[in-house]
Amino acid sequence: MISEVKNNATVGDGVRTSSVAIAGGLGLIVVVALVIFLQVMYYQFEAQQEQLKNTDEPNVEVGNLVADQQATLASYGWVDPRKKIVAIPIQRAMHLALAELRAGTFPQPAPLPEAKKADAKSPAAKPKPGPTKANEANHGK
Fold first, then answer.
1. Residue 21 domain-assigned (yes or no)
2. Can you spell out the DSSP letters for 35-55?
3. Region 93-118: what's the mean pLDDT?
4. What predicted TM-score, i.e. pTM, was given to this entire model?
5. Which range of residues forms the domain containing residue 98?
């Protein structure tokens, strides 16, 4: 529109700034509400997916395998009847091993074969770390 000149003053095009401000404010409210709505929908969908992922049916084969292993660990049986090797429950074996260790009758490791003994005595072999007579004497003080 063409502005009119009245008394040396310019009159505007008739733009109502209050209407523009109200429309902008309403638009802002709609955008904020839309963003909040989309966030709520996203988090609900995420929670559903997490629940689906975590509540899958357990693998039956794995459960059966674990149950069989637990039963084997808790039962008596023959490992090799010809060699007279038996299996005992793991808890019983631990108690027996602890009792033998306390009594000092725990089996010692097998001795080294002759070839390994010769290698251990060679000058190139590194000495084993451990207490020496000098260290034992210092620790006793």
1. yes
2. HHHHHHHHHHHHHHHHHHHHT
3. 80
4. 0.34
5. 60-108
